[in-house]
Structure formats: C-alpha cells, structure tokens
Amino acid sequence: MTFIIVLLAAYLIGAIPTGLLLTRLAGGGDIRNTGSGNIGATNVYRTVGRKLGALTLVGDAAKGALPVLLAVTVLGYDHSHTGAVAVAAFLGHCFPVYLGFKGGKGVATALGIYLVLSPPAMLGAFLVFVGLVWKWRYISLGSISAAAAIPLLVWLFEGSLPLLLATLVISCIVILRHRTNIQRLLRGSENKFKT
Fold it and tell me: Out of 7, 49, 92, 162, which residue is the most buried by the measure of CB atoms under 10 Å away?
C-alpha cells in the first residue's frame, strides 16, 4: 500500500504545470493559448521570455528529480521500485490530472529524472542534444535524439534491466509526443532555435 501512495505522490508532483503557473504569476496569461500551446520550457522561452523559460526548465526538471531522489535516498528503493517512481513522475508531467491529462512533452522532466538515475548517461545524452542543436538549431531534433540515445547510455553505465525498461518507456513517450515536430522536420518547416 505504501508503494502505491509513493507512486501517486510522484505522479502528482510530476503533474504540477510549472510553465502554466509561472506564466500566470508573471501576468503572461495561459501559455496554452500562446505559441505552440505547449506548457513546456521551449514554448515559455519563445513566447514569454528567457527568464521564465529557464525557470520552467528548472521547475520541470526538479519535479522529475525530486521523487526519484527521495526514492533512492530516503526510501532506499531498489532499481525496480525507483524506475517505477521515475515513470510515475514522468507520466504526471505528460498527462497531468490538473489539466485534463494534457501536459508537456516531458523532456525537462526526463532530464531531472536521468540526473538522479544516471548522471553519466545524462551527460552523454546532453552532449548529443547540445551537439545537434548547435549544428542544426532544432530543439526538437536534439530532444528526440537524446531521448533515443539515453536508454542505451543508461544500460552501458548502470547495467540495470529495470532502469533500462523505465528509460525505454520514458524515451518512447518523449519521441511519440514529438510526432508533429518529426513531421515538420521532415517537411523542413520546423522552427529553429534563436538565441
């Protein structure tokens, strides 16, 4: 019963709509009605500004990292239970009960999760992301590629089947939630990142 409560708590923490709350507090209205309509850091950055975009990134990463960190350090969970907590927090962001189960794409929340699960794997995925964004200026391409790479990196660095399965679930959802970006990349109509 206790583990079910932990999973529910992880989901509810992950479901906190950071970008929506920050833009409303800053007087920017409902971020879902601006730009791409996404509640994540990229849309906040593009439509409201760098500061709130960065704060959204940190907040979304934190709500992924916190439940996993507590699972590892306070509760002493093994890889199977920790992986389940990670997936629960991630699903909270992507399918938040507070917003009718319509959330973000999960990249920043996954980043926070992976920072706790496997810092070396996260560093590898981050280098993939930065390299591709630097070369082609597409945030979506970097995000999709990093998501595709991280299960292998987690397996290489951690050698844990439960963590591999958890990262596969998270990565598949990240990639699926970028399907419209993939279509725009193939058409050549995807928005490029501007500094």
Answer: 92
Q: How far apart are CA 53 and CA 65, in angstroms?
A: 18
Residue-number span of the structural domain to which 49 is assigned: 2-187
Closest CA to 168 of 87, 80, 71: 87
Of the candidates 193, 190, 181, 158, which has an alpha carbon nearest to the alpha carbon of residue 105?
181
Does 193 map to a domain?
no
Q: Select from 121, 64, 125, 68 the least CA-distant residue to 90.
A: 64
Q: What is the pLDDT of residues 48-96, one digit of tens each?
A: 999 999 999 999 999 999 999 999 999 999 999 999 999 999 999 999 9
* pTM, 2 dp: 0.94
Q: Which residues of the chain have pLDDT under 70?
A: 1, 195
Number of structural domains in the chain: 1
**How many C-beta atoms surround the C-beta of residue 173 within 10 A?**
20
pLDDT number for residue 195: 64
Distance CA 109, CA 147 (A): 12
The C-alpha atoms of residue 30 and residue 39 are separated, in whole angstroms, by 9
